[in-house]
Amino acid sequence: MSAAEEARELVPADVHARITAEADRIAGYGETAETLAPYPVNQATIGTWLDAMGYDNARFREGEAPPSMAQVWTMPGLGRKRSDDDPLHSMMGVLTAEGFTAVLGTNCEQTYERYLKVGEQPRVTTALESVVGPKATGMGVGYFVTSRNTWYVDREDGTSEKVATMLFRVLKFIPRTKAQS
Amino acid sequence: MKVGDRLAEWSLPLTPTTIVSTAIATRDWQDVHHDRDIAQAAGSKDIFMNILTSNGLVEKYVADALGHDVLIKGISIRLGAPAHPYDTLTFAGEVTAVEDGEITLKVVGSVSLGDHVIGTVRVAA
């Protein structure tokens, strides 16, 4: 069975066509939805993170931040919303509206150009990288949605420096009911 | 380090406090990481570890094993079985490549349900 035939078997053609069209449109935004970290990189947040992880590394009590905290700084925070033009959020909305209501994180690939320092205030952009599917998975029929985040720090001379990137993939799927499994 | 070198295993017993404190410390307020009623209503057995924490624990495991002056260049993880309270998360790791000034390690964190996280970590050699 060809990939196209398999797709028709899993999802009605009109639904797949709408999802594909929206994915192309949203991917066309490119790197967008730039968001500044609500608070600068700070020792209290780093220390709390180290305590929670049970991680005692003196390096991170002396002005540097653990590299995997890059994403922590730009998490929106309790009660705050992501911007409406966020490509990942937009694509999730499209799939939810088509019945793919459940979500599961599957992959997270982070690259660190350098460690952040206390006092820096990173900003992050989001781009929709790809929407692949439909696929029949153990969880149910769904699409794999991959987004790309890029973190920047502004230098004093007005230029900006890329400090970290992340490819993040989720499966957005129709949950199998107990009767089906 | 050379290809095939293994890192000492590390086991982390998981309590509700582990799951909740790490979720909040990573500034992740998704309710399924701190509210058992909501997690169960969504079909989970209990609250479960968030991805930023799985990532952070992979970082800690590798840095504790290789030395705190290690420079981590990248962490790629694939998520598998959920990590719930009252389970144990056990990490194992192995060097898979040493080339171009970089060491690549494979790290697996497993729980009773299977592999929770399968990671590839790149560090400066």
Automatic annotation (TrEMBL), chain A:
UniProt protein name: Uncharacterized protein
> What organism does the record attribute this protein to?
Nocardioides caeni
**Which taxonomic lineage is given here?**
Bacteria, Bacillati, Actinomycetota, Actinomycetes, Propionibacteriales
Automatic annotation (TrEMBL), chain B:
The family annotation for this protein states: Belongs to the enoyl-CoA hydratase/isomerase family.
Q: What domain of life does the UniProt record list for this protein's source? A: Bacteria
Q: Give the residue spans that cross the bilayer.
A: none
Annotated source species = Nocardioides caeni
* Annotated protein name in UniProt: Beta-hydroxyacyl-ACP dehydratase
Q: Which InterPro entries match?
A: HotDog_dom_sf, MaoC-like_dom
The chain positions of domain MaoC-like read 8-109
Pfam families noted in UniProt: MaoC_dehydratas
